[in-house]
Prior knowledge:
The protein is an alpha+beta fold. Helix 2 (56-62) packs across helix 3 and helix 9 crosses helix 10 (261-285).
Amino acid sequence: MKTVIEQDFRPLVVLYGYRSKRDTLSFVGRGGLITLSGRSATAQRILRLCNGFNNVADITRKLRTISPKEVAEFLSLFEQQGIVCDSRDLHLKFHEDSANPAKFSSDLGVDGVSDILRSQRLRRREGNVTQVPNPVVSNVLNVIQDRKSTRAFQPGQISLDKLSGILDATYSIGKNGHWSVASGGGMYPLDLYLIVLDDSQQVPRGILRWNPEERSLITVSDKNPSVWLSKIFNAKTLLENAACILCIAANFRRSTIKYANLGYRLTLLEAGHAAQNTYLFCAEQDIGVVECCGFADEALANELGLLFPDEAVLATLIMGKIGTDVQTSLSDQEVSEKAERLRHILVGDNKPIKDVLFLDLKVDGYTMPMWSTMATYRPVPGRLTASMKRKSVAFATGSTSSEALLKVLSEGFERYALEQNRSDRKESALNLGEPFLDPRVLVPYSDAQFKNLKGVTPFDPRRKLDWVIGSRRATGERVWVPLELAYYATKQMRHELKLCYQASSSGVAAHFDKEIAIDTALYELVERDAFSVTWYSKRRVNSINHECLPLDLRDRISEWKRMGYSVSILDLTLDGPPVVLVIIWSRKRRPAICSGAACRPNFVDATLKAFNEAEFMAMTWHYHRSRPKMEMSEIDNPESHGVFYLDPRNLEYVDWLLEAEESNVIGEDFKSSLQYLEPVVVDITPKDHACGLSVIRVLSEKLMPINFGYGNEHRGHSRMDMLSFRWSEKYPSTPHFFA
Length: 739
């Protein structure tokens, strides 16, 4: 309870409550039931008087048998639990309930919104019609006609005098003492903040607060806003090349202390006046501007140093130089619509994906500046092992919620497709009469390995197998692929077939464009090949100096250093496109090591993707329950690789990599074709779910596959000889940390 107004506190019950059992009251709260046990009769007597008109003194006077101290304690408890609030502060509850991310939403979908836009804007009213003439000539009307929202910017500076004009127009005191906007009761509760995105502007990068009385800007934070901006604004293309963001915030108490809840409405009106002034000045000065209210309210308030919900941002205006180039990438809105359509098709009862969950990952005061999602896909009944059913999940990260949703739906559908195995032909390799992929070349095991490995048996070209049809990407030549190389090994397959291999998801990708899916899968194969070759050969690699990396990434690395972790950026590139391995590690903390790897045509792009993966792993493994020391021989799946390296004692197996020599040189862009890998492409898209995604499995005899499990490495693969490397250990090798 607010001690400064304790006796004047006017409690109003805002949650439905009932007597659930003897001496217990339950209330229906936003996050579930709130249960209060003990002295329920006293609690009920107090609650009956919480009508929003009685203050604490009134309630105490009317309940003479209950001491003032007890009344105050009960009311304090009720307020803390959200059961009552001051009747004059109802607007704060509404503001929290209407904040982003939305607790309650209409969920209309793309088609539902389109229907509304096509409908009549307002209810029709009957009456006499009076036509009005054209208006007088007015400069104000001309500027209003020029007012528009800009959704594409180009690099450029907003000069200091124009920035001064924006601030003056939005919220300032004129020479005559008049403010630039009207304010209910002359209270002027607005509080403006300027987020400057980079060092190219004439004011310092960071967060600056506007003081209209002194016409000055004060830096309240010099942190790099680009790190958290996309996540909080849930936007990517909208923010590209923007110069700054003007945040119109308010201290509601300034107005509501006089007008109570009406003051909230007056404050919103004032913010609207200020935003329109910004638009008009920008229209006159040919400055691009767009209002954005889709930000995460509490998160933005925290970054600005506001005391949410009493102080909150009401609107933001993104500004910069108006873009002239045609946008080539999908806009935020287009990505959102695409993701929502895919969600409608794939998620729900009797659909491939059960549900999608957004994760807000935080560790030691640091929030991952990416949207993180998890999708639970629907396993095929009776075909998966119990372990596989528990792990029927897919994860993804994205700059926006829609990007993350689109990725996780694609990933979930990809994993779902891996279980929908089909057989295009059952025949022995000798009798196929067409080319086939030979497991003895692609995923070779020695005779000794077959004796130790469970669930696999040597490939026999005379034995009849189930095959799926694929093709060489370059020539279109038909190539037969053993079923177990293309799909997950389900429980049914293990029971009915003699499998020569148990496939993972490496080299599988889903995309609306089949060619992009093929390239994505190929880049993943190159990445896993580079990691496997490096791990088993212990070849010398370079650690990239952090100063060579983008500022945003350096700032994120600094957060992990603050938490006691080191970050290694390793260049694993072999004879193809750039491959980057990022390791977040500590000798004193758990998890001891988490990693992410990526292959992209551009080195920096690969680094960013790898870092996002490593950071996601570090965030999620942070909450993994510790267990007694694990033996290498217990490692039998991807997750157990990660569990083994949670223990700092096992860093001794990775020291050779963590001590890599530092380099100031980053890899060059890859501009060639991936055709040199001579990939075989297998389309494993489930035919009973037409969602537009193509799910592709890609295989190449020229690349070493990654393995999972102790003693499961592909000793006989030709890749080591091709690169003139040797195996650094005798069989079985130390298991890697890639999870």
